[in-house]
From TrEMBL:
<dbReference type="InterPro" id="IPR036388">
    <property type="entry name" value="WH-like_DNA-bd_sf"/>
</dbReference>
<dbReference type="GO" id="GO:0032259">
    <property type="term" value="P:methylation"/>
</dbReference>
<feature type="domain" description="O-methyltransferase dimerisation">
    <location>
        <begin position="21"/>
        <end position="88"/>
    </location>
</feature>
<dbReference type="GO" id="GO:0046983">
    <property type="term" value="F:protein dimerization activity"/>
</dbReference>
<feature type="active site" description="Proton acceptor">
    <location>
        <position position="248"/>
    </location>
</feature>
<keyword id="KW-0808">Transferase</keyword>
<dbReference type="GO" id="GO:0008171">
    <property type="term" value="F:O-methyltransferase activity"/>
</dbReference>
<dbReference type="InterPro" id="IPR016461">
    <property type="entry name" value="COMT-like"/>
</dbReference>
<dbReference type="Pfam" id="PF00891">
    <property type="entry name" value="Methyltransf_2"/>
</dbReference>
<dbReference type="InterPro" id="IPR012967">
    <property type="entry name" value="COMT_dimerisation"/>
</dbReference>
<protein>
    <submittedName>
        <fullName>O-methyltransferase</fullName>
    </submittedName>
</protein>
<feature type="domain" description="O-methyltransferase C-terminal">
    <location>
        <begin position="117"/>
        <end position="316"/>
    </location>
</feature>
<dbReference type="Pfam" id="PF08100">
    <property type="entry name" value="Dimerisation"/>
</dbReference>
<keyword id="KW-0489">Methyltransferase</keyword>
<dbReference type="InterPro" id="IPR036390">
    <property type="entry name" value="WH_DNA-bd_sf"/>
</dbReference>
<dbReference type="InterPro" id="IPR001077">
    <property type="entry name" value="COMT_C"/>
</dbReference>
<keyword id="KW-0949">S-adenosyl-L-methionine</keyword>
């Protein structure tokens, strides 16, 4: 067999494998739903043992875990038992970096069903989410608090995996006021205030979100405020505006409205600090190129290149000052008054 035939054979296997790649998140969701990682916390077990505890079919569970093991999610031992890997350990309920809720969200029908309509999204240039669920995502969640809780809890836990890299990378000015815009329950702001004892903070988000904030701790007493509202209308005055994974949820016009709100309220010498993935050029894999499709199908948002962010800033009377990579997949993009 010549090299060309080898290349064609490899390409066929890739196309077939990629066509069925949706089975991997389905299998991950199954493992999370059945609590398999927690059951393996004290050591490897057989599929029969795991099935007896989870109420599953032993044969079907064994085949699902065997498949997950091919991707490093669980490990099949020579004696037929299954054990935890580092990745599978993140799915335990007591993991210091809890990923189970994130897997549950990202494999939920909120993402799954719009992904099946990606062809419609590409044709029409807008998400199919409202057609499927009857309303845009945030309106849908506002009308269903229990679903909103699943969404915001998962995003808070995802965000928690990134806080340390952000706070240790960005030099917050001393004695400044930091407003975390769309800051959810305040996990990032809490980390900022903890690591910067001269900084004060404002947590800004919808009332239903900030009502369950986590800033009320003795070590932060007197250094934070809560404000509720819409970042499309008006935000509180601050020296530094944090926009962590906010702009990527929105189209360009809405992003300019958010940035303009910050620019209009910004204290003299203030900064807007956007924390998002920045899309690099070239064909190499990058987390931003994957999450960009998620933004497309659910939010009508997008991940942006440095040049695209610079253009948004310019429309809001801001200018890009610098881009600072972090240890994770996000970068810190700082803008100042133009």
């Amino acid at each position: 067999m010549n090299q060309k035939q080898n290349d064609i054979g490899a390409a066929v296997r890739q196309v077939l494998g990629d066509s069925l790649a949706y089975l991997y998140p389905a299998a991950m969701r199954t493992a999370v739903t059945l609590g398999i990682a927690d059951q393996l916390a004290d050591g490897p077990k057989t599929a029969d043992e795991l099935a007896a505890k989870s109420g599953a079919s032993a044969d079907h569970l064994r085949r699902t875990l065997r498949f997950l093991a091919t991707r490093g999610m669980f490990h099949e031992e020579e004696d037929g038992t299954f054990g935890l890997t580092v990745s599978a350990g993140l799915l335990k309920s007591d993991s210091p970096l809890p990923m189970a809720s994130i897997v549950n969200l990202l494999t939920d029908e909120l993402y799954w069903l719009p992904a099946g309509k990606l062809d419609d999204t590409v044709r029409n240039g807008t998400t199919a989410f409202p057609d499927i669920f009857g309303a845009p995502l945030f309106d849908y969640l506002a009308e269903r608090p229990e679903r909103g809780e699943v969404f915001h809890t998962a995003l808070d836990e995802l965000s928690a995996t990134e806080h340390g890299g952000i706070v240790t990378t960005y030099p917050f000015p001393e004695s400044c006021t930091v407003a975390d815009i769309g800051g959810g329950k305040g996990g990032l702001l809490r980390e900022v205030l903890t690591k910067n004892p001269t900084v004060n903070g404002i947590l800004f988000d919808h009332e239903s979100v900030v009502a369950d904030h986590g800033l009320d701790t003795p070590d932060l007493k007197g250094r934070w405020e809560i404000e509720a509202g819409s970042f499309f209308e008006k935000v509180p005055t601050a020296d530094v505006y944090l926009l962590k994974r906010i702009l990527h949820d929105w189209n360009d016009a809405d992003c300019v409205r958010i940035l303009r709100s910050c620019r209009d309220s910004m204290a003299e010498g203030g900064k807007v600090v956007v924390v998002d993935t920045v899309v690099p050029s070239g064909n190499d894999p990058h987390p931003s190129k994957l999450s960009d499709l998620a933004m497309m199908i659910v939010f009508d948002g997008k991940e942006r290149s440095e040049a695209e962010l610079e253009a948004l800033f310019a429309e809001a009377d801001l200018k890009l000052a610098r881009v600072i990579p972090t240890s994770g997949s996000v970068s810190i993009v700082e803008a100042i008054a133009a």
